[in-house]
Amino acid sequence: MIDQSFLKIKRKELCKNCLKPEKYYGPFKDGLCSTCRGEDIWGQTLTESEKNELSKLTDELLINASKKGIPIAIGLSGGKDSTYLVKRIIQKFDELGIQNKIICITVRIPTESKNLVPNINNFKKIVKELNLPVEFYEIRPSFDMYKFYLDIILTDKIIIDIQRTYDTCNLCSDLLESLVIKKAIELGSNLIFFGLSPDESNRFIGKIPDEKLSHNWFPEILNDVLDPKVKDDFYSPKWGTVKVLFPFHYWDYDENAARNESKQYIKESDPFKTNCSMVFLNMVLDLYTVGKMGYIESYSHLVRTGAMSKSDGITYLNTFLSLIKNRQSFIWTEHINPILEKFNLSFEDLVDKRKKIIDSIS
Ligand SMILES: [Zn+2]
After folding, report:
1. Distance (Å, rounded) from C-alpha 74 to C-alpha 192?
2. Which residues surround ligand 1, an ion (CB under 5 A)?
């Protein structure tokens, strides 16, 4: 039997500040969750002086790159934030009175949403029409590696904790960022930007730190399993010195502005339609097994920091839950079913396996 009790959450059961449900993030005190009471940290934020420092550094790096004729690389997923970032960087060139070329690098992961390619094609068309200084490149990582990722995370080969969504994203992000860095270096750039929004700050904040860039990223757990050639896709300090920045962690960021402005360039700006399908599979599995709601954590962070309005937060919560409840909804037909099919998985089996893992560790 699949537990569907998470589908009945009421407004009064949500944190007064950030809208997380008490049922899964409680107990609350005075209607506030532990994060809003300041008792735990999810998704760090920078102080004003740290933000200013990073903004100043970014300006200097952009000016310097322009002087030396080094192009700027941007990791372009086809979602609203990375598209919006291209626009913001071009604005930045104008502000600083510089000119430069932008290289957009897309990694076509096997779990990408089907809306991303039409988005990128639309964006390419507009870039051409407006004669913007932007070039596009595409890379495809190994399908076998993703098969292995899914296997270790969805079944029981490795158990870190119940936060599967987070673990999957971490493993995948390391590879994705590595591939973008590799391509950027190949194209003569060492200054790379990613459009992660402020809620996506649980891995790094503002930039990839030097400690992370000083060692190899190949995960030990894959050591005996994968073709040694795949190891070369993971970042190595031998590749050369790079700066990898997440400017939406320190520039002004407004969720609505990102959505509205990216609408001029792409067909679909809705994160429900453009997020990685694996994220949805993981979240739905988490919901059906432990009631953990990864999507809510991320937008409750946006609500908490003022980057998303509370009414939008409520709309998202209600929309997300009703889309999961209805197996004919696009969350199932566009995200979950295609991933299950592509990797030959059964949802009921996955729920069973995950429940067993949780029982064995609790
Ligand atoms: Zn809260």
Report:
1. 6
2. 15, 17-18, 33, 36
Q: Where are the alpha helices (DSSP H) in the chain?
A: 22-25, 48-68, 80-96, 116-129, 143-154, 164-186, 210-213, 228-231, 255-262, 271-274, 277-289, 294-304, 310-325, 330, 337-342, 347-361
Q: What is the CATH number of the domain that holds 159?
A: 3.40.50.620
Tell me the pLDDT tens digit for each residue of 28-53: 999 999 989 988 766 678 999 999 99
Coil, helix or strand at residue 193: strand
For 203, the enclosing helix (H) or strand (E) is none
Which has the closest alpha carbon to 152: 223, 101, 201, 95? 223
Instruction: Report yes or no on whether pTM surpasses 0.85.
Output: yes
Give residue 19 CA to ligand 1 midpoint distance, Å.
6
Is there a domain that residue 211 lies in? yes
User: Considering the domain boundaries, does residue 162 fall inside one?
Assistant: yes
Q: Read off the pLDDT of residues 293-324 as tens digits, 9 standing for 90 and up.
A: 777 888 888 898 888 999 988 888 888 888 98
Distance 22 CA to ligand 1 centre (A): 9
Cα–Cα distance for residue pair 97/83, rounded to 1 Å:
22
Please count the structural domains in the chain: 1
Output DSSP code: residue 75: E
CA–centroid distance, residue 7 to ligand 1 (Å):
19
Residue 221's alpha-carbon distances to 217, 234, 357, in angstroms, are: 12, 13, 19
Distance 35 CA to ligand 1 centre (A): 6
Mean pLDDT of 118-126: 94
Q: pLDDT tens for residues 317-347?
A: 888 888 988 999 999 999 999 999 998 889 9
Range of 70's domain? 48-262
DSSP for 2-23 reads: ---GGG---GGGB-TTT--BHH
Assigned domain for 153 exists:
yes
Rounded to the nearest 5°, which phi and psi values hold at 100? -165, 170
Contact 111, 345 (CB under 8 A): no
Evaluate whether residue 290 is within a structural domain. no
